[in-house]
Automatic annotation (TrEMBL):
The gene is rpsP. It holds the Pfam family Ribosomal_S16. It comes from Sphingomonas natans. This is Small ribosomal subunit protein bS16. InterPro entries: Ribosomal_bS16, Ribosomal_bS16_CS, Ribosomal_bS16_dom_sf. Belongs to the bacterial ribosomal protein bS16 family. Residues 125-141 have a biased composition (Acidic residues). Residues 86-141 are annotated as: Disordered. Keywords: Ribonucleoprotein, Ribosomal protein. Residues 86-113 have a biased composition (Basic and acidic residues). The keyword Cell inner membrane does not apply. One of its GO terms (cellular component) is ribosome. It comes from the Bacteria.
């Protein structure tokens, strides 16, 4: 039997409240579980101590037995110092689509044109060559 540590949802509609439970991985999300080891209330402020309440001793026990935490629970364990979580990144997902890239390029070119029209380049000062250098050039040619 594979065991996972995951969230079980409770609370009313649009007012979520989660229990951190140890459950059979095949059991339904809100179904039967083996043990409740904590709670998570996403409605509280991120710096609130009651946002995530965790029984660290039981969590250590279940991790030592081989229970696999879900990604969200692994974040909680990482914050509590129980288990190191490898950083995950999906660079493709965060990248804008083709149309968005085209619109961004168009905006950038329009902004550059508008700035160029508003701020014309200052004329460069013309430096006159010294008279001796001009005289040498005319005699050589």
């Amino acid at each position: 039997m594979s065991v996972s540590i995951r969230l079980s949802r409770g609370g009313a509609k649009k007012r979520p409240y989660y229990r951190i439970v140890v459950a059979n991985s095949r059991a339904p999300r809100d179904g039967a579980f083996i043990e409740k080891i904590g709670t998570y209330n996403p409605l509280l402020a991120k710096d609130d101590a009651k946002r995530v309440v965790l029984d660290t001793e039981r969590a250590k026990h279940w991790l030592s037995v081989g229970a696999q935490p879900t990604d969200r629970v692994a974040r909680f364990f990482d914050a509590a110092g129980l288990k190191e979580r490898a950083a995950r990144s999906n660079l493709k997902k965060g990248e804008p689509g083709e149309k968005a890239k085209e619109r961004a390029e168009e905006r950038a070119t329009k902004a550059a044109e508008a700035e160029a029209a508003a701020n014309p380049p200052a004329p460069e000062p013309v430096e006159e060559a010294p008279a001796e250098a001009a005289a040498e050039e005319t005699t050589e040619a």
